[in-house]
Design goal:
By secondary structure, the protein is α+β, with helices and mostly antiparallel strands. Helix content is 20%, strand content 23%. It is built from one helix and five strands. A five-stranded mixed beta barrel has the order 1-2-3-5-4. Strand 2 and strand 3 form a beta hairpin. It is elongated, with a radius of gyration of 30 Å. The relative contact order is 0.13.
Length: 140
């Protein structure tokens, strides 16, 4: 079965170097997984992610005329790009309000809470402004 770019196949880690890992593919072919293609995070030491003789799924990124095969472990698994349901996003301010009350009541409650928060922020900000700078001591 010949390989094509984009195929996901299972292979075995043959050798690990500082720049990547050589993977034994079916039919005796060998490919290289560059260290940047091992995980979705920064990989400083590839040996923390892979060991020799590990079975891994890899995606074939490219094949050149010289027979070199470029592979990726991180692209072998589809990203979880599932659309999130808008119901998953609950506004923090809406959690404290009774949904059985009328719109006007909820709006008044929101405005009152908002004013209280604004006053608290102004109070904290003003107190920080007054306490800036250095204080002179009596001795100087």
């Amino acid at each position: 079965m010949p390989f094509e770019v984009g195929d996901v196949v299972e292979g075995t880690v043959l050798n690990i170097t500082d720049f990547g890992a050589f993977i034994q593919l079916p039919e005796g072919k060998t490919g290289l997984v560059h260290i940047s293609e091992v995980a979705n995070t920064y990989v400083k030491d590839i040996r923390k992610h892979l060991k020799e003789h590990d079975k891994v799924k890899v995606k074939i990124l490219s094949m050149d005329a010289n027979g070199r095969i470029s592979l990726s472990i991180k692209k072998a698994f589809p990203k979880n790009n599932k659309e999130r349901d808008p119901k998953d996003f609950v506004w923090q301010s809406n959690r404290n309000y009774n949904t059985n009350s009328s719109f006007e009541e909820r709006l008044l409650k929101f405005l009152k809470d908002s004013d209280e928060r604004q006053q608290q922020l102004r109070k904290n900000f003003d107190s920080k402004r007054r306490n800036t700078g250095y204080r002179k001591s009596n001795g100087y």
